[in-house]
Amino acid sequence: MTEDDDFHIGLYENGHWAWNDNLEQMIYVSHRHPQEEEDTLDFYMAPTSHMQFREDVDLVEQDIKDIVIYTAPVNFLSSRLINMLHTPTGERFLRALVLYCAYALQVTDQMVLRNLELETKIRTTDSGILEDELRDNLSDIRVLVAKEYCVILTGADDMKPFHHMGPLKDKRSLPGKDARTFDIFIRLCIQIVYLALGRRNLHQIEIETHRILKSEAFNANESKSRARAMKVQASQSKTQQKQPAFIQDVIYGKCFRRHRGVFTHSPLLNEIFCPARPVDYRMLGLAVTKYPQLTPRLEFLRMVLAGSDKDLVENNIIVGIIGMPRDLFDIMLRFLPPTSTNDKSKSGVIPRMSAAKATASRASSMSAKKSTHAPTYPEIVIPPKRDVEYEFQFYNSQHLFLSDYSVVVARRLKTPASHA
Q1: What Pfam families is this protein classified in (predicted)?
Q2: Three-class DSSP labels, 254-291
Q3: Contact assessment for residue 220 and residue 186, using Cβ atoms and an 8 Å cutoff
Q4: Is residue 399 in a domain?
Q5: What is the DSSP string of 21-77?
């Protein structure tokens, strides 16, 4: 008996006989499934020795979202939150928030250095030219965050399934569930921004994100612990007292207004409805409405907001660690330490070091970490405005030149202060 005979199955095995009324005779019904023929087009026929994996892969936003979702506590996650992060509106909101936080930290450091230089230099009237450019850049990026934020709040476009009154907005409102979902969503966004900026400045990112989304009156950070909240408020008041007026003017912008109680609006709403600064109406429809002949500045913002990963790489656009080579990071997106042949012997054994030298090297490394404030990613350079862009600017009281999408965004941004 051969090996093939062991696997031979008879014609009338593994089945049963039954009477067929239509044929009026006994038929055999087999219990075996019909064997499917293999399609050679379903897989690649080349040998596996030809498989070559890519090494020049750049980091994309999806890599950071995967790490955040993987490391987040399971009891806080839900399919609803994960789907919100992967909608087109959610992705544009995340990109705009990453761009704003990165540029805000960059401008803050730059303004602190300019303030220190005043000890040896004299401030002139020309000093405000660069500060006006930085202030306008921050305000324009806040407009990009605001237009996506309003779509999330009002449940428009692809955010309809996540509205607290249902997709048709005809169900009973669930304010408690909506507030809880929104807080977790914002916390996930903050963690994504934190990883996108090289795992640095988490406290500043958290404070600034809650400030622009909810204003200082409805800041969610104050609900954590009263002692920590008082300490944060005290530190903020001290830093605000130490900061000169021109630094606050650059960081907060011309549209920063203080109101009391229900009249409080978030800084994002103030940027849209601001009579003190003209806004290009195309900013409200950027990455959603196609505009012909965009300026380099608007094209750069559109690329950062909704450009594909391939477009970012081809145009050499890096925001935080997004767009940097993947081989610089480990699997958890931490920077890999630089490898040096002097630290290790050829056999791979670390040479011994005396206790005094070890202590001294450890102390020097700690001091170097404390004194080092160099960014881990390149600075963001936004193209300056051109004279053509000023022709498209309008004051917020003039809505005649708005596109259809921009009108919807502008109307829906007028939400109550408790939701903003």
Answers
A1: PPPI_inhib
A2: CCCCCCCHHHCCCHHHHHHCCCCCCEEHHHHHCCCCCC
A3: yes
A4: yes
A5: TTTTEEEEEE-SPPPPPPPGGGS--S-GGG------PBP-HHHHHHHHHHHS-GGG-
- How many domains does the chain divide into? 1
More confident residue, 418 or 170: 170
**Would you call 195 helix, strand, or coil by DSSP?**
helix
Quote the strand ranges of 357-396, DSSP E: 393-394
**Helix (H), strand (E) counts: the chain:** 14, 4
pLDDT at position 408 over 50: no
Using DSSP, state whether 32 is helix, strand or coil. Answer: coil
pTM assigned to the model: 0.72
Tell me how far apart the alpha carbons of residues 378 and 322 are, in angstroms, rounded to a whole number. 11
Is the residue at 110 inside a domain? yes
Cα–Cα distance between 156 and 183 in angstroms, integer? 19
- What is the extent of the structural domain holding 119? 61-323+377-412
pLDDT 10s digits, 8-55: 556 777 788 888 888 888 888 887 766 555 554 444 556 655 666 666
Residue 44 lies in a domain: no
- Helices 127-154 and 202-214: angle between axes, nearest 10 degrees: 70
Domain membership flag for residue 389: yes
CA dihedral of residues 323, 325, 330, 332 (deg, nearest 10)? 10
Distance CA 251, CA 256 (A): 10
Nearest residue to 269 (alpha-carbon basis) of 99, 84, 100, 139:
139
* φ, ψ for residue 320, nearest 5 deg: 70, -130
CA 229 and chain centroid, separation: 26
- Stretch 412-416: mean pLDDT: 44
Q: Is the pLDDT score of 83 beyond 70?
A: yes
CB 276 within 8 A of CB 254: yes
Q: Which has more confidence, 320 or 376?
A: 320
Q: Rounding to the nearest 10 degrees, give the CA dihedral for residues 283, 285, 286, 287.
A: 160
For 329-371, write each residue's pLDDT tens digit.
Answer: 888 888 888 776 554 444 334 344 444 444 444 444 444 443 3
pLDDT of residue 278: 80
Percent of the chain with pLDDT over 90: 23
Kindly provide the b/e burial profile for residues 375-403, where b requires at least 16 CB atoms within 10 angstroms of the residue's own CB: eebeebebeebeeebeebbeebeeeeebe
Average pLDDT over residues 157-168: 84
In the DSSP assignment, the letter for residue 389 is G
